[in-house]
Every structure is written in structure tokens, then in C-alpha cells.
TrEMBL record:
InterPro entries hit by this protein: P-loop_NTPase, TPR-like_helical_dom_sf
Organism: Streptomyces evansiae
Coiled coil residues, start to end: 537-564
Taxonomic lineage from the root: Bacteria, Bacillati, Actinomycetota, Actinomycetes, Kitasatosporales
Residues passing through the membrane, by range: none
The keyword Oxidoreductase is assigned to this record: no
Domain of life: Bacteria
Keywords, comma-separated and alphabetical: Coiled coil
Name under which the protein is recorded: Transcriptional regulator
């Protein structure tokens, strides 16, 4: 083994190897009879190694790389029994070389090394003292053995958590190396300085420029950011172990990254050349702005899967570009980045983060309306918003002919969309917030400009879900459908039609309307290729089938929706679809399948923080507990539901379903008389909101049961008959059918056949509102 680290001059390499082999005196035998003495160390080595089987280790070649390479090639050419193992920060580059990168330590080995070195400097130390902090230290130090050893040496003064919290200043912190090792191995800065000093100027510049990346990059990105020949320079930095290369997950090429320690060092070096760093940052922002702008329509198309995966891969770089644009006050770049990522953030459940970026960008782009604070978004405008005015109007602060008008309006609509999705209490708006939403809706809906129809302007049609009821949304959504047809915006048209189907199922429109829209949606989904849209349409078909009592069709459609949502990675949709499958199984009388779906839905809802899915599952379990004859258990679930996530309100359909369950629980625990007042209130709310026939019918069936139990058999017959009329040709589920049969049998026995028939006939002229009094 020849240790080359101490050498200062490349020409000393052969002599160092001679010394390592212990070759003191030898001769060059040009012929058996004429030995000739030689002082040439290369010839001495050839003479010594030519007839032997040897492994020669050349350790630490990087600073004498060319001399080590020449020697290795000469020896390998003339000594057939020789194998050379060279350690270096870059390959020797000789024929026949096989490169074996030495990766950082795996996590478990890194933690073990830290524990051993920590116990050596502080007797009694164990990793268990703070396992999370130790794991963080090892991860942030990239599993580099020297860095871990230097960190462990600091345990004389700091605990693991203190040490982990100080790693942002790692080059000042990690300085306590052994005095007996080479100077470049005594501190973390020294070891990285050593690698830096081995680079040429072009490589210095490239490393500085590449420091603008966060989380890795591909060659195309490097070519956009680097001023020099990126392919050659990145390759050189990979060879010199300052950049790590690994295959892209999809096998399309290579992806590059710096270890965190190297990246921090490169950022420091970039600060030495601010002009170059600023220029590289501008190129980085431009590249990722172009990327998200290109990706934005494609993630809603048949090409969406690779583009969604690419945006996920580049998310850290997109964040870095956004932060840079905001810090530099570059409104155009920041707005374009946010709008380019808006649908991606929503689809992939980055909604809280997206709302925060949108609001920070609104601070830059004309200020944040005062009412936005009432929308309960999680981001605090104090971050970056100091000194800017906060207009109270929803307008963008510039006239319509200004180039910033539509981007700013779209930004506000996107922010409203994302923030509403992250706030469980978004229905309870203050008057100022309601005025803001109304004004924003009007700015989009009262113009025929194409920008008002495409995403996110299309979302203005759904503002009534914040303000009023689903029925009030029809004019806006009908108008959006018409504008999308004129504009030829197929994805937006499909989205508008899909929402119209959903509210048709929940409101008293003819099912024929929904069937017609679903027929058109089949063709639009096929043309756009968007799997998310396909999942939504399948979910709407499932809702309609369920409302019509076609439970097997509903199950098949819901399973199709689940498959498409999971394929596109819309994981926020998964728990509710699983909960819907549980509901379908329950209505079908398949209790074991319902239980299995609920268990899976609850687990996924935990993973995705889906509050709505949890609420739906609790409600479903409460209904099942009632059917099992366990009203106390059902009451406990209703109490949990009242306070879950601080929710005090919700859409009318949800409130009607919740009230229906609470009424049945109260009747079971306190008697029908105690539950009747709440039932009247719930029925009045359903009638006022003009909810769908199936939802109102369920409330009427509950009322029929209560009226029967209080002895008002005629009113019970009226309620059940009106419920039957509202359901139309659609069959009741098994539990509703049992309830209807019980009410019918009891009231017929109490009234007698003739009076019962007369009561049924008398209900023909009664509507739900008549029953309230």
C-alpha cells in the first residue's frame, strides 16, 4: 500500500511507491550476463513487479492524479500479474479501469459510527440519549464518515439536539479533528477546501452556478443555468466527487445533486462572485418558470403522468425559484410560477403550501385584500408583507388593459380556491370575506373575456358554494358551460359539466339533465385523457346510481374512480372514495365489505389529513350503531362529529345528513316527542335549501317514524307517502325499506285498511313544506 497523501510534488509518486514496496537495492537485468544498475524508480518498479502476483494500493491520488495515472498505466502494461487499486476523488482514466464509487455510509452504519465516536469522547453516551437528533445529524452530514467523526467530537460540549440545531453553520462547528491526521482532515472546511483547490477556474465557476439548484437537476437544467459547457463541467465535477450522479427513476437519463455539505460550501463560494451568482439565479428562475408554464396544461391531459412526476421531482427547485422571485420583487416571475403550479398543488395535495405561496405572491402583486385575513388561511402575511398597502377590494389594482390585470385576478381566484381547500371552517365567512368572494366572482362572471373561462378563472362559477346553496350555482355554472363551448376549452367544459352533474344529484333537478351531461362527459374525458377528470366523472356516475338505488352500478363506478385517482396520484380523493364504497356496501346490505372499506378509508384519511373523509366515516358509523341498537355509541360519535376539527357548519346536504342521524339518536335515547322539534327544523332547512329528493326523502322517512311513535299515524302516512313520491322510481336501500315497511304495517294496523288508503291518497296534494307545521 502506497500512501500518496503526504506528497507535494507529482514527480515523487514513483519513488513513494518504491519506498512502500521496500525496494532498497535492485538492478535492471537487460540480459542474464549483464546486470546494469538503475536509479529510475519506474524501471525499478517494473523489474520488481513484472514476475509477481501483486495488489498495489495507491491511496489518495487526487492531487497527483496525472502522475498516478501514468505510473499505473505503465505498470499494468508491463506487469501482467499486477492489479492496481487506486483511491481518489476522481478516476485515473487509464485503459481497463473499473470505477467503484464509495457511497456515504447507510443510515444505520452512520448512526453506529456516531455512537462509537461519541462514547469515546463522552463516556456513557449512547445513541438512545436522543435517537432522533443523532439520525438527523447523520442524515444532514450525508453519511460522510469524517464529518460524522468531527460531529461526534463536539459531544464534549453539546448534546445531540444542540449539535443538530447548529449544523446550518457546520464549517465553523466541525473543527475538532485529530491532531495526528493530515491538516486537511482536521476540520470539515479543510477537507472540502482540499477538493476545491483541485478544481480549475471553469470548474470553480460551474460549482458556484450549480449551487442555485435545490434537490438536484438534470443535464438540460444545468445547460440552462451554467455559462460554460455544462455537459463537460458537470461530468468533471461528478468525476471529482463533488456532484453525485444517479439514473432518473423513469430511466430517461441521469440526475445530479450535491451532498448537503458540498452544497452549503458551494453557496459560500458563490457569494464571492455575486454577479455570477445573480445571473445563474435569474437563469434558474427562467428555466423553472418555462417548465411549469409548459407543464400546466399537460398535467390535465393524457400526457399528465410523466409531467406530474417531473413536477414532483423538481418541487424543491420550483420552491427555490419562487423564493428568489419574491425576494427580488419579480412580480411577473412569481405570478407565472404560482399560476403554473396551481392545479398541480391542488391535485397532489400540496394545498396548504400552495395557498401560502399564492398569498405571499399577492403581497408582491398589488397587496393583499383586507378580507383575505378572514378566509382563515394558515400563512401569515407578516412574512414579507411589511410596508405594503392592503386594498379592501377584490380587483387587481390595475385597469383591464394592463398586462398584469388577468394574471393578478387569476392569482386571487387560485388563492381563494387553495385556501378554501385547506380550511375546514371556510363556510363561516365574515361579511368582509363574503363581499370579497362576491366581488371576485362578479369580476370573472360578468365578462366574456377568454381569460375568465380558462382555469383558474373558471372557478368563479363555483363561488356560490361559499356563499349560498348549490341550487343558486346553476346560473353561473350554466353560463360557464356556454362560455366553454364557445371558446372550445374542452377540459374546462368537462369540469363545468362535471360540477353541474354533482349538484344535480344533490338538488331537485331532473335526473335526465345529469344523464345528458354524463353522456357528453364520456366523450370529453376520452378526448382530454385526464385521469383526475375521469375519476370525478366516475364518482358522479356513482352518486347518481346510488341516488337511484342502483348499488351494484354505483360500486363499479366508484371503484373505477378510485383506480383513476390513485393512478394520477390524487391521493386526497382516495379516502372519500373508499368511504363512499363503504356507504354503498352498507346500503347494499354487505356489512363485512362496508367495515373493510371503512378501516382502509380511515387509515388513508389519516395519511392525507382528510377531515371530510373522517367526518363522513364517523357519520356512517353512527348510522350503523343505530341500526345495531346501540344509540349510546351513536350519540358519542355525533358528539365527536360536532367538534371534529372545530367544524360548526357545512354544506346543506352534509348538515341535513348529520341532522337526520342526530334526530334518530335523540329519538332512540329520549323518545320521539323530544326529537320532533329538531326534525321540524331540519326539514325546514332542507326545503329552504331545495335539497335533492333523496336527501329530503330520508328526512321524511325519519319524520314518519317519529310521527308513528307519537301516535300521529295519519301524519306518519303522509310523510312516508311524500318521501316515496320524492324517491320516484328508485328503490330504497335495505335499511330504508325496513323502516318504510315497519311504518306501513304499524299505521295500517292502527288506522285500518280504509283509513290508511285514504291517508295515502290525501298525501297526493301535500308537499314537504306542508308537513313542517
Amino acid at each position: 500500500m502506497a500512501e500518496l497523501a503526504p506528497l507535494d510534488r507529482p514527480e515523487d509518486v514513483p519513488a513513494a511507491v518504491v519506498s512502500a514496496l521496500g525496494v532498497r537495492e535492485t538492478v535492471l537485468r537487460t540480459a542474464p550476463e549483464r546486470p546494469v544498475a538503475t536509479a529510475d524508480p519506474v524501471e525499478l518498479l517494473v523489474e520488481y513487479c513484472a514476475g509477481r502476483e501483486l495488489l498495489l494500493v495507491l491511496d489518495n491520488c487526487e492531487h497527483v492524479i496525472e502522475a498516478a495515472a501514468r505510473l499505473a498505466e505503465t505498470l499494468l502494461t508491463r506487469c501482467p500479474g499486477l492489479t492496481v487499486l487506486a483511491t481518489s476523488r476522481e478516476p485515473l482514466g487509464v485503459p481497463g479501469e473499473a470505477v467503484r464509487p464509495v457511497d456515504p455510509l447507510p443510515a444505520a452504519e452512520a448512526v453506529r459510527l456516531f455512537g462509537e465516536r461519541g462514547a469515546a469522547v463522552r463516556p456513557g453516551f449512547t445513541v438512545a440519549e436522543d435517537a432522533d437528533a443523532v439520525a438527523e445529524i447523520c442524515r444532514r452530514l450525508d453519511g460522510l464518515p469524517l464529518a460524522i467523526e468531527l460531529a461526534a467530537a463536539r459531544l464534549r460540549l453539546l448534546g445531540p439536539r444542540q449539535l443538530a440545531d447548529r449544523l446550518d453553520d457546520r464549517f465553523r462547528l466541525l473543527t475538532a479533528g485529530s491532531r495526528t491526521v493530515l491538516p486537511r482532515q482536521q476540520t470539515l472546511r479543510a477537507v472540502v477546501d482540499w477538493s476545491w483547490d483541485l478544481l480549475d477556474e471553469e470548474e470553480h465557476d460551474a460549482l458556484r452556478e450549480l449551487s442555485v439548484f435545490a434537490g438536484g437537476w438534470d443535464l438540460a437544467a444545468a445547460e440552462a443555468v451554467c455559462a460554460g459547457p455544462a455537459d463537460l463541467l458537470v461530468g468533471a465535477l461528478v468525476d471529482k466527487s463533488l456532484v453525485v450522479a444517479s439514473p432518473e427513476p423513469d430511466g430517461t437519463g441521469m440526475r445530479f445533486r450535491m451532498l448537503e455539505t458540498i452544497h452549503e460550501y458551494a453557496v459560500e463560494r458563490a457569494a464571492e462572485d455575486t454577479d455570477r451568482a445573480l445571473a445563474a439565479g435569474r437563469r434558474h428562475t427562467a428555466y423553472y418558470r418555462a417548465l411549469v408554464t409548459t407543464a400546466e396544461p399537460l398535467i390535465r391531459s393524457g400526457e399528465q403522468l410523466p409531467w406530474i412526476a417531473r413536477l414532483e421531482t423538481e418541487l424543491d427547485n420550483i420552491r427555490a425559484a419562487l423564493a428568489r422571485a419574491l425576494a427580488a420583487g419579480e412580480e411577473e416571475d412569481a405570478v407565472a410560477l404560482v399560476l403554473g403550479c396551481g392545479w398541480f398543488w391542488w391535485l397532489r395535495n400540496h394545498r396548504i403550501e400552495g395557498a401560502e405561496w399564492a398569498e405571499r405572491t399577492m403581497v408582491l402583486a398589488g397587496g393583499v385584500p383586507g378580507a383575505v385575513g378572514d378566509l382563515h388561511v394558515r400563512h401569515r402575511r407578516a412574512e414579507g408583507g411589511t410596508g405594503r398597502s392592503a386594498p379592501t377590494e377584490p380587483g387587481p389594482g390595475v385597469p383591464p388593459d394592463d398586462a398584469r390585470y388577468w394574471p393578478r385576478l387569476h392569482l386571487r381566484m387560485l388563492h381563494l380556491f387553495l385556501s378554501s381547500e385547506t380550511d375546514p371552517d371556510h363556510e363561516n365567512l365574515t361579511p368582509a370575506a363574503r363581499a370579497y368572494v362576491t366581488g371576485l366572482r362578479d369580476l370573472f362572471s360578468e365578462t366574456d373575456a377568454p381569460e375568465a373561462t380558462v382555469f383558474p378563472g373558471l372557478l368563479a362559477a363555483f363561488a356560490p358554494f361559499f356563499l349560498d346553496t348549490a341550487e343558486d350555482a346553476y346560473p353561473l355554472i350554466d353560463g360557464a358551460v356556454d362560455r366553454c363551448r364557445r371558446l372550445g376549452a374542452e377540459w374546462e367544459l368537462a369540469t363545468a359539466l362535471m360540477f353541474r352533474v354533482h349538484i344535480t344529484v344533490d338538488a331537485p333537478r331532473e335526473n335526465a339533465d345529469a344523464q345528458a351531461d354524463l353522456g357528453e362527459l364520456r366523450h370529453l374525458c376520452a378526448r382530454t385523457g385526464d385521469r383526475w377528470l375521469g375519476a370525478q366523472v366516475a364518482s358522479a356516475r356513482a352518486e347518481l346510481a346510488m341516488a337511484q338505488g342502483r348499488y351494484e352500478d354505483a360500486r363499479a363506478e366508484c371503484e373505477e374512480a378510485l383506480h383513476l385517482a390513485q393512478e394520477v396520484g390524487a391521493f386526497a380523493e382516495t379516502p372519500f372514495l373508499l368511504a363512499r364504497l363503504a356507504e354503498i356496501a352498507h346500503h347494499s346490505g354487505d356489512r363485512p365489505r362496508a367495515e373493510a372499506h371503512m378501516v382502509r378509508a380511515a387509515a388513508v384519511a389519516d395519511e392525507t389529513a382528510s377531515l371530510d373523509a373522517h367526518a363522513f366515516l364517523i357519520l356512517l358509523r353512527a348510522r350503523m350503531a343505530l341500526e345495531d341498537g346501540a344509540p349510546d355509541e351513536a350519540e358519542a360519535m355525533c358528539a365527536q362529529l360536532r367538534v371534529v376539527n372545530g367544524r360548526t357548519g357545512g354544506p346543506p346536504t352534509w348538515m341535513a345528513a348529520f341532522a337526520d342521524t342526530e334526530i334518530r339518536v335523540r329519538a332512540a335515547l329520549e323518545g320521539a316527542d323530544a326529537a320532533l322539534p329538531q326534525w321540524r327544523e331540519a326539514l325546514a332547512a332542507a326545503v329552504s335549501a331545495r335539497l335533492s329528493g333523496s336527501i329530503t326523502a330520508s328526512l321524511l322517512e325519519t319524520g314518519a317514524l317519529l310521527l308513528m311513535e307519537t301516535g300521529d299515524h295519519t301524519a306518519a302516512v303522509h310523510a312516508l307517502t311524500v318521501a316515496t313520491r320524492l324517491r320516484g322510481p328508485h328503490a330504497r336501500g335495505p335499511h330504508e325499506a325496513d323502516l318504510a315497511a315497519r311504518v306501513t304495517a304499524t299505521t295500517r294496523a292502527a288506522l285500518g285498511p280504509a283509513a290508511h288508503t285514504e291517508a295515502v291518497a290525501g298525501a297526493a296534494s301535500i308537499d314537504p313544506a306542508d308537513l313542517i307545521s
